Amino acid sequence: MLEQAEIKLRYMTCALLAEDVSALDELCLNGLKETYTALGVPPALAIRAVQIMRA
């Protein structure tokens, strides 16, 4: 499961560096809830993390 989180973090980092976050919706955000849940991250913190990434 950690491997999936690492892959998604790489996608997010690349998108942010490229200043093109359009790929995040398809590749990352759709499965992010399941990833954070599997890692035991409280929902409120996961929501805040996504808000920060989008900003």
What do you see in this structure?
It is built from three helices and no strands. The protein has 55 residues and is an all-alpha fold. It has one domain (2-54).
Summarize the structure.
The protein has 3 helices and no strands. It has 55 residues and is mainly alpha-helical.
What key attributes describe this structure?
globular, mainly alpha, 55 residues, 3 helices
Rounded radius of gyration (Å): 11 Å
Which segments are poorly predicted (pLDDT under 50) over 5 or more consecutive residues?
none
Question: What percent of the residues sit in helical stretches (DSSP H or I)?
Answer: over 70%
Q: Calculate the terminal CA-CA distance, rounded to whole Å.
A: 26 Å
Structural class: mainly alpha
User: How many individual β-strands?
Assistant: 0
Number of helices: 3
Question: What is the helix/strand order?
Answer: HHH
Largest β sheet strand count, sense and barrel closure: none
User: How many individual domains?
Assistant: 1
Average of the residue pLDDT scores: 78
Write the SSE topology.
Elements: H1 2-18, H2 22-39, H3 43-54
Helix pairs in contact: 1-2
